[in-house]
Every structure is written in C-alpha cells, then in structure tokens.
Amino acid sequence: MLEQIKGLHHVTSMAEDARTNNQFFTQTLGLRRVKKTVNFDSPDVYHLYYGDETGTAGTVMTYFPFPEMPRGRAGTGEVGTTAFSVPQGSLGFWEGRLTRLGVSGLKRSESFGEKRLNFAGPDGDGFALVEVRDDPRTPWTEGGLSGDYAIRGFHSVAMRLRDEGATADLLKYMGYEELDRRDGVTRLVVPDGNGANLVDLETLPGINRAAQGAGSVHHVAFAVDNRERQLEIRKALMDTGYHVTPVIDRDYFWAIYFRTPGGVLFEIATNEPGFDRDEDTAHLGEALKLPQQHKHLRPILEGHLQRLEA
Fold first, then answer.
1. Which InterPro entries match (predicted)?
2. Is residue 309 part of a domain?
C-alpha cells in the first residue's frame, strides 16, 4: 500500500461559459480565483482555478470553459458529486443564499451522519455543501462571506460506478482505507490527510455510462508533497500494470494521469511549486498567465478570450 497521497489536490470540470462560471464560483460560492490561464492543449480555452487564498491543495476547483459546449450526460464512470466542507450550523445560511441567487437543485439530506445541501452548478454540475465540525482549514473571506459560513475546501468526491470492486482496490492501494458502508455507498478515507481526504463510491449497475460535456468532471487529482513522492507512485502504479503518463509540467504543479478500472480519470499532482510562482499572493488570478509554449499567442488570445468580468 502506498503512503504518499494526502487526499484530493483539485477537481477539474468543464463548462459552457467562462463568465458565468467565474461569477458562480467567486460571487455565489465566495471562492477566490487563484489563476487565470489557458488549456495547455487548446489555448483558445481558459483554464480557471478557484480555491482558498493561495490555492492550497484540497481546495481547488478548476474549469475548462468550452464555448457552446453541450451538456454532459450523467452516468457511471465519472465523479457525480463534488462536496465542499462548510462550518457546522451553516447550511441554513447557505440554503437561503443559494435560493436567493437562483441556484437550482437544492435538496437537504444526511449521509454518513453528516448534514448536507445538494445543489447544481450552472451547467448542471453535481455539488454539495457538507457541515463539518472544527475543520481547521482557513477559508477565503475576501469574497463577501464571513468565516462563520465560508467554504473550507473539499470534503469529498463521489464516484458513480457500475462495479466498485476494482476502483475500491485501487484506492486502497493508493493509501485509502474503508471507513463505512451505507445505502449502497462505500466511504474511503486517507488517515491523517489534508482535510479533503474522503472518497465515496456509489455502485449503480443499472445506469448507463456517462457522456462528458459541460457540467462533467474531467478528472480528479490526488495530492502528493513533491516530485520525488510522485515518481514513487508512478513506478508503483506501472509495476502494478497501470498505464501512467510521463510527468507533465503544469506550471503550478507536476502531474501524471491514468484511467481507473471504473472509467474515472485520475491525476497525481504535486503540492509544489504552487500558484504564487508567477504572481504575488495579493494578486493571484488577476492577470492572464500563459504557458511558455503559448506566450507568443498573447495578442491573439487577449482579443479572443471572453472577458470574465462584465
């Protein structure tokens, strides 16, 4: 069993409209935009990152907003719900706020003894806020929300699978342990993790496979401290039979990717070098930052990319 993974690093999804996406995460949810850059493979498309003050691993939701992208179709082989941690007793505030702001899909529920508020993102994304007692992570409070209510970071992701067996075995190999089973859901945890250290597996054998589009999670990334730990994991996974990409420099972290037995794309991402490598912390997410290979496109991209603020 591996011991290098600390929990979630980031979750990357797709959207149809960049301005709507930016407004939802920075104004409705009160997160900080910590980076405004572009998709490495399609530089005419933004890559937007939202999180806490510095984009700490375990807090960062990222998006590829593809203009006029059709919505995805929910199903198995994907992350169905991304859940955020909020303070105990804050769901009433959030229910009122999201209702007032016209957010759809609001539904109160309880899972594994925790109160949660499910809701939909602008593209039908599956989200939840989960009350957590004494989450020690420091929230971003410059987005208009006080620390009594603000999001602390990720709580968990829930993967929808036709059969959880092989994916559960993989996660256990990656250092997760089974914590509980209830109502057809298996909960796994990384002991002594980074606070974003829960994964839920939902077994849905009668559901069709998902089709990706706007509102779909593209991949889920797990956090390791540095490149040395990442290379250890890469070797171990390849020795086990997984096809893992070479290490890819994503400017703010190094990444490796592999497809899981259940169909979900996994990434292992380093906590280094961080989002302040090319911007002062006080100004994260303000300027358009371009990967080295796309810097020559700046005049074109600045004229093409949608303005995020109206």
1. Extradiol_RC_dioxygenase, Glyas_Bleomycin-R_OHBP_Dase, Glyas_Fos-R_dOase_dom, VOC_core
2. no
